[in-house]
Design goal:
Layout (H helix, E strand, L loop, with lengths): L1 H25 L7 H28 L2 H17 L17 H13 L3
Helix pairs in contact: 1-2, 2-4
């Protein structure tokens, strides 16, 4: 049981190590306000919750052989999408609320990896 708890803690820890790096990168794009940090925090919490839901559904409804294949495919696709540097095309055009733009930019950049 300790191994599972350590794995969950490590995965969440690593996920939230990426958050300040990527948020600092897109901060000037969206005006440098606290809304950027809050939007990034919202995205990463949603991503963590989605990861827990994915793990729950995979364990509950999929056989161990298919679980291995699913993880292998997702791992290969994630490595193909590296590095996690946002493209300049995700910069906002107007002065609207940046939250949706932040979530879309982060989802397109680091959603899968």
């Amino acid at each position: 049981m300790l191994v599972y708890a350590a794995t969950i803690f490590l995965s969440a820890f690593l996920l939230f190590q990426v958050q300040p790096l990527i948020a600092k990168f897109i901060l000037p794009w969206f005006g440098g306000s606290a809304a950027v940090w809050n939007g990034a925090l919202l995205f990463f919490h949603l991503l963590l919750l989605a990861g827990y839901f994915y793990a729950h559904c995979l364990i509950r409804y999929v056989s161990p052989k298919k679980q291995f294949r699913t993880h292998l495919v997702l791992l290969v696709v994630s490595f193909a999408m590296l590095p996690i540097i946002p493209n300049a095309r995700w910069k906002p055009a107007g002065g609207a609320d940046p939250t949706l733009g932040i979530i879309i930019a982060l989802g397109a950049t680091i959603g899968l990896p």
